[in-house]
Amino acid sequence: xxxxxxxxxxxxxxxxxxxLRQLSREGVAENxxxxxxxxxxxxxxxxxxxxxxxxxxxxxxxxxxxxxxxRMSRAYRDEMKDIAQAYLGFAARWxxxxxxxxxxxxFRTDANLVLRRLFERIQREDREFYPAVDAAALVA
Length: 140
Known about the structure:
mainly alpha, 5 helices
């Protein structure tokens, strides 16, 4: 199974998270419009990525007959539900410049929690999950 598309999407999501961190360090209230736009961008990237995993990657792995990949796929899918829900709540709260500007400390607190969790998950997928999928050399 070729998962290069998913790997490239991870790069895009991580770059967007890095940009959000940079904007926050430069001043949340001062960069509220750019931050809100970046939150929307990350949301679009993440939703596209998650939909692809849900429609293509996880089903293929769970039908592979490889017990290890089936277990990994189910565990990653289940864990991602909570992470995705947390991110969608974050994005719904912080997708407007007005809201970001009104509560810069609230944004910073939420971003530190939610984005760190998403970042760590992507890192773990890149380090553990995707290499296992590549090593299995599944044909899809």
